[in-house]
Amino acid sequence: MLYQGYCARCGRRVRTEENWFKGKIWASTAVFHWACLIALMKEHGEAAAEDAAWKASRVTREQ
Ligand SMILES: [Zn+2]
Question: Is the dihedral of CA 14, 15, 16, 20 positive or negative?
Fold first, then answer.
């Protein structure tokens, strides 16, 4: 079982086979479950959502 690290929002481990997101946020590399990322975007508003979506579009799964 491979883990990408701990979700920056909920703190649970993110498994490789789950949908997840890894990107540079807040000047550090963060890993999120997709569900957590979406929730985070809703909490932080549209501008944050657009920024994260743009970053997500550039991140592909690392196998
Ligand atoms: Zn999470």
Answer: negative
What is the per-residue pLDDT across 32-57, written as a single tens digit (0 to 9) for each?
A: 888 888 888 788 776 765 666 566 66
Tell me whether residue 62 is exposed, middle or buried, using C-beta atoms within 10 angstroms of its C-beta: 0 to 12, 13 to 18, 19 or more.
exposed
Ligand 1 center to residue 10 CA distance, Å? 4
Ligand 1 centre distance from Cα of residue 43 (Å): 14
- Identify the residue whose tokens are 């703190």: 11
As a whole number, the mean pLDDT across the chain is 74
